[in-house]
Design goal:
Blueprint lengths: L3 H13 L5 E9 L4 E9 L2 E7 L8 E2 L4 E4 L1 E6 L1 H6 L9 H14 L2 E10 L13 H13 L6 E9 L5 H5 L8 E7 L11 H12 L3 H33 L2 E5 L4 H10 L3 E3 L4 H9 L3 E5 H6 L9 H6 L5 E3 L6 H13 L2 H6 L3 H6 L16 E7 L2 E9 L2 E2 L2
Parallel strand pairs: 1-4, 1-5, 6-7, 7-8, 8-9, 9-10, 10-11, 11-12, 12-13
Antiparallel strand pairs: 1-2, 2-3, 5-14, 14-15, 15-16
Length: 397
């Protein structure tokens, strides 16, 4: 069951999004277990009826055989950070950045997003990170309360273990902030995502413009911070997630031992496990496996880790995240549909399963009584093309 704070967030969405009635007819309706020809009716933001047949009632939208699917649910995206810092060291005004981020996601079919914000800063060196999450969260929550956004926004705090200020920054948040997800991030060089220091150097040097000496110092700093704060920060972040009523996620699990630790912490889903060993251990421990849509579309990880498609073929993939390319989420679902020959199963990786992982009980599927987040999609040479996006019954794209 979702927390009272998430329930309050959803009630706030309903107050701010007034919608009329809508009927999408003569469509291929993607239900949880099958695809039917039929219609979906939404009244006051809620799905009220699903009917079979190609009849187009008066006033309905004739979808002419297009797919109608649930709106996409995104649990982890770097996109908001890209908008508030469009280039390294460029601080863009937050409210315009949030509005642009919201509009971009709506245009790609994402109707619910957990906006990932880093908590845990490093104040020294060229690789420094300055705290920003509390201020950004305040602006996001105010904008949401004012009904500014097209889609539903919730908070995801990325708890950076290799930092100086993690627990202080987490303490700035309370249950009233309705934090939905806290993820445990350990980016210590030489393990997890960046076992290959060459890949880390390429990533960081390009993003932060570091020379060899500065990169070596950056690595030394992160290793020192992990040794100094790692155990304290990990234990503290788990406790803070419980205090906030948030779902706990792991990040970049690589070994069965990593997953065993995640299971002891009560992790609900694993973001981007880097090996098949870790994915298999997650499955054995009842932890949902999330992989990145860019990994799936590109055919491999940019960091040299396990390919999402390999996990999908081994039935070890549960959730897909757009990660750093919002438009990749819908594209990945239809790619999985071809791989599995099962469109409902594929769509669930970006709708029902992430909604369940985040304890959202009012969305993620086409079913009477659920929130009217729906997409109209047409295939063009195997590429899904959005023809319409509705959030809470209101057209947003």
């Amino acid at each position: 069951m979702n927390s009272p704070f998430l329930r309050a967030s959803l009630a706030e969405d309903r107050r701010n999004e007034v919608s009329g009635d809508l009927c999408l007819a003569n469509a291929q309706i993607v239900l949880p277990d099958r695809v039917i020809t039929g219609s979906v009716t939404i009244e006051q933001g809620v799905i009220s009826d699903i009917a079979e047949g190609d009849h187009v009632p008066t006033g309905a939208v004739d979808c002419a055989g297009d797919f109608v699917t649930p709106g996409l649910v995104e649990l982890h995206t770097d996109n908001v950070e890209r908008h508030i810092e469009p280039r390294p060291e460029v601080d863009w005004p937050h409210l315009p950045a949030l509005i642009a981020h919201d509009a971009e996601l709506a245009s790609t079919g994402i109707t619910t997003v957990f906006d990932a914000m880093r908590v845990g800063s490093i104040h020294s060196g060229k690789g420094r990170y300055i705290d920003y999450a509390r201020k950004l969260a305040d602006e996001l929550l105010t904008a949401r309360a004012e009904g500014v956004f097209k889609i539903s926004h919730l908070l995801h705090l990325r708890a950076e273990i290799c930092s100086e200020t993690l627990l202080d920054e987490l303490a700035m948040f309370g249950p009233e902030d309705r934090v939905g997800i806290v993820s445990l991030m350990d980016h210590t060089p030489g393990q997890r995502q960046f076992r290959d220091l060459t890949a880390l150097k390429t990533y960081v040097a390009k993003k932060r413009g570091m020379n060899d000496e500065e990169f070596a110092e950056h690595v030394k700093t992160l290793v020192r911070l992990q040794r100094q704060f790692g155990a304290e920060h990990e234990t503290g972040a788990v406790k803070e997630a419980e205090r906030l009523g948030a779902v706990l996620a792991s990040h970049d699990d690589t070994t069965a031992a990593h997953v065993a630790t995640s299971a002891r912490h009560g992790v609900g889903f694993a973001e981007f496990p880097t090996t098949r060993e870790a994915a298999e251990a997650c499955q054995a421990n009842g932890i949902a496996v999330m992989m990145g849509a860019p990994n799936l579309i590109r055919g491999g990880s940019h960091s040299g880790n396990v390919a999402a498609e390999d996990l999908a073929r081994a039935d070890l993939l549960d959730i897909v995240s757009s990660d750093y390319v919002p438009s990749a989420l819908l594209l990945s679902a239809f790619r999985l549909a071809r791989l599995w020959n099962d469109l409902p199963r594929a769509l669930a990786t970006v709708t029902a399963t992430p909604a369940k992982a985040a304890r959202l009980v009012d969305r993620g599927a086409l079913r009477p009584g659920l929130r009217g987040d729906v997409l109209r999609v047409r295939l063009l040479s195997q590429t899904p093309v959005l023809r319409g996006v509705w959030s809470n019954g209101r057209v947003v794209g």
